[in-house]
Design goal:
With 409 residues, the protein is mostly helical. The protein is 52% helix and 11% strand. It contains 14 helices and eight strands. Helix 2 packs antiparallel against helix 3, helix 2 packs across helix 5 and helix 7 runs antiparallel to helix 9. The relative contact order is 0.07.
């Protein structure tokens, strides 16, 4: 609770407002001067009321030290993010700091409100913000920016430096929507025909990713002992990633649900078996320079492949063959579309993709589920209409039996 001290004809009221980024307790102060006609008892009563009001005023916004957002965000990176976030997530958060610091980094935490943050998020929709497309940023990217700011402010609340998070009141604008493009069945057939000209390593990579819907990091994290050639079951249990700070490194799967098992057909196992023999021959040719990482997809010397390599190779391959290029992640969407089109339930699709819950699967592929549900509805309607168009059958036996009964009667 606030305290006070007499200073001449007035009183200084002091209230604790948490701690600053260095862990020092922060106080806010105000001066209250009583009416000269007030009695000592009235002054004491009003003074206590002013203390309560000032306490509430401070804690309503939990006004703290004049620490700037950028300074506290760097504190968040040091004390929390570096210790708790995955390296890939940490690298992404770091990439977001440029625009955020330029816009709000100089603003004190206690002065940062929803209106200021909303103005920044809205600015991301401006033409030219995305230097690649010349358009505004996508809704997904804007969500990343708001999420970063919100995480920092949530940490400030946890550290007793803030009472509420203004990000909760901010709305993400519609933004530019990036259309999800995947190969059609005909394009997929054509793709694997021209892939016959590709090196075995990449034929295996893109055939396997189509059969399993694995993420790129999961594909590159596969090791030979993850494959059971007797049962055709593959255990997905690690990822291979890259950041500028760490280089190529091995990590756990993205989520707990991403650690999963998938089954592949015999033709895929035969291709994998041939690929393994070819890799063994390659390792013998390289000799002492070979690094035995047990990975499926490696560099010339056996070390794990850079995650950008399959993307760059596929882009160049598609350009050389005048074939559409939609990136590597489209194969995961293609796999999902095959499952949904086959009528597989959302729980199974979610598990196969390694999502933590079905909500994630529905949020990403809701349009596909709706599309195939509509087709199912159309199939029922068509079947019923077909039956309606059929002429009614004349059950002669029933008619004869009826006439016979009438005659007998």
């Amino acid at each position: 609770m606030a305290s006070y001290e007499k200073r001449g004809n007035s009183y200084r009221i002091k209230s604790s407002c948490g701690y600053n980024s260095e862990g020092k307790q922060v106080f806010q102060r105000m001066t209250w001067t009583p009416d000269p006609n007030m009695t000592p008892k009235q002054i004491e009563k009003e003074l206590n009321r002013q203390c309560v009001l000032f306490d509430e005023a401070c804690k309503k916004g939990f006004v703290t030290s004049p620490v700037k957002f950028k300074d506290f965000a760097e504190q968040w990176f040091e004390d929390y993010a570096n210790l708790n976030l995955r390296s890939t997530t940490l690298a992404r958060e770091r990439q977001l700091t440029g625009r955020v610091y330029d816009a709000i980094g100089h603003i004190r935490l206690d002065k940062l409100n929803a209106r200021i943050i909303q103005k920044f998020i809205n600015s991301l929709t401006a033409e030219g913000t995305n230097q690649t497309t010349g358009k505004g940023l996508s809704k997904k990217t804007m969500t990343h920016y708001l999420s970063f700011i919100s995480k920092v402010l949530d940490y400030a609340i946890k550290m007793d430096m803030l009472g509420s998070n203004p990000c909760k009141k901010v709305t993400i604008p519609k933004g530019s929507v990036k259309e999800r493009v995947i190969y059609s069945v005909d394009e997929t057939e054509r793709f694997f025909k021209i892939m016959q000209e590709a090196p075995l390593k990449y034929r295996v990579f893109f055939t396997l990713v189509t059969y399993t819907g694995m993420r790129r990091g999961e594909m590159l994290g596969l090791e030979w002992h993850d494959i059971n050639f007797d049962t055709g079951i593959i255990h997905i249990q690690r990822t291979s990633n890259y950041t500028k700070a760490r280089g190529i490194y091995t990590d756990d799967t993205k989520t707990k649900g991403s650690n999963r098992f998938v089954k592949v057909p015999q033709d895929m196992l035969d291709m994998l078996s041939g690929f393994r023999k070819a890799q063994q021959i390659e390792s013998e040719n390289v000799g002492d320079k070979w690094h035995d990482s047990d990975r499926l997809f490696v560099k010339w010397d056996g070390r794990p492949m850079n995650p950008q390599t399959p993307y760059g190779w596929l882009k160049e391959f598609c350009e050389d063959h005048d074939f559409p290029f939609h990136g590597i992640h489209q194969f995961r969407h293609l796999y999902a579309s095959f499952l949904i089109g086959a009528g597989i339930d959302v729980a199974t699709v979610s598990g196969s993709l390694g999502h933590n819950n079905q909500v994630t699967t529905l949020s990403i592929y809701s349009h596909m589920f709706k599309e195939f549900q509509a087709k199912a509805c159309d199939a029922v309607v068509n079947a019923l209409n077909f039956n309606k168009n059929e002429p009614p059958k004349n059950d002669d036996k029933t008619s004869d039996d009826s006439n016979h009964n009438k005659q007998s009667a």
